[in-house]
Amino acid sequence: MTAATEGTPPADVRRPRLLPSPLRPGDTVAVVAPAGPVDATEMSAARSLLESWGLTVRSTPRLFSTRLGYLAGSDEDRLDDLTEAWLEPEVRGVFCARGGYGTQRIADLLDYPRLAAAGPKFLVGSSDITCLHQAWGDRLGLVTLHGPMPACRPLHDDEETARHLHAALFGPSARSLALAGPVLVPGRAEGRLTGGNLSLLASSMGTPTAPDTEGCVLFLEEVGEDAYRLDRSLTQLRRAGVLQRTAGVVLGDFSACGPPEDVEGVLRDRLSDLGVPVASGLPAGHGLRQLTLPLGADAVLDTARHRVTLPPQRGTPR
């Protein structure tokens, strides 16, 4: 098992994050499962899609392990798969096959100095991978991609979802994202884009991967949580001061969370008094369309234009 590094200070959270250089046809990427289990059919579809983009795909036999019915193998196996993939010199990006549950069990065991020494690479994933996005940003100083995962249907069923991820990896990525939902609080906000899955962010409070939202544009999304559970997670973030420190909040999909009017009511109740712009309707998260968001990149939320704009960034040299 990879040894944890006690007391390793995080990267300066205020310094600009490094964007990995764009991928090219012929590059090698790895698919790992740091959370829930993956079956062979899902992996076959994932491999076919990535290979259709001209990428060479690597995985390990441990990818198909299971433990306790909801983990993709033991903590040791998942930790080793993620670490070995990231440290492989030829690998230019690591795709998390799916979410589920499990990344928080290994986040504090990762050897971040070794991972940082491997240089900038793409980390792609969402949902339970929220924990790793926070760690990669704080400890490795990298922009990471909150986006659709290879074993999940939207990447295969929705052309715009696939096109958007491809553009984020190969460039040029889309710089302006339309918001289709109501504006909860009007205004304009600028800051580093951060966030991810609401319940994962709330459950990380008090840990080394707790979100730092000072001056940031906070993105939130959720799936399968009733209104009172959304309230509980938002209240936890409020009690911790996380929401009050943001520059603005942009809301993605809240899929299968009950009647839309109930969801909107909770969001208005918990977010409208923060004194910052709040807008909804970004097609990202667990919906049928899942746009890719560069967490750690600069962003501008403009509710008058119903858009989130991402100023151009240059990837690190190869």
Folded structure, characterized:
This protein is of the alpha/beta class. It has 2 domains: 28-170, Rossmann fold; 176-309, Glucose Oxidase, domain 1. It is 30% helix and 20% strand. The chain is built from 10 helices and 14 strands. An 8-stranded mixed β-sheet has the order 6-14-13-8-9-10-11-7. Helix 9 (227-239) runs parallel beside helix 10 (260-271). The protein is globular and about 50 Å long. Mean pLDDT is 93; it is low at 1-13.
Task: Note the topology.
Blueprint: E1 28-32, H1 40-52, E2 56-58, H2 75-87, E3 91-96, H3 103-106, H4 112-117, E4 122-125, H5 130-140, E5 144-146, H6 154-157, H7 159-170, E6 176-178, E7 183-185, E8 188-197, H8 198-203, E9 217-223, H9 227-239, E10 248-255, H10 260-271, E11 278-279, E12 293-295, E13 298-302, E14 307-309
Parallel strand pairs: 1-2, 1-3, 3-4, 4-5, 8-9, 9-10, 10-11
Antiparallel strand pairs: 5-12, 6-14, 7-11, 8-13, 13-14
How big a fraction of the residues is strand?
Answer: 15-25%
The CATH class assignment of the largest domain is Alpha Beta
Q: Name the structural class.
A: alpha/beta
| Rg computed from alpha carbons, rounded to a whole number of angstroms | 18 Å
Spatial order of strands in the largest sheet:
6-14-13-8-9-10-11-7
Any idea how many domains?
A: 2
For this structure, what is the CATH homologous superfamily of the largest domain?
Murein tetrapeptidase LD-carboxypeptidase, N-terminal domain
Mean pLDDT: 93
Enter the CATH topology name of the largest domain. Answer: Rossmann fold
> What general form does the structure show?
globular
Distance between the termini: 30 Å
The number of helical segments is: 10
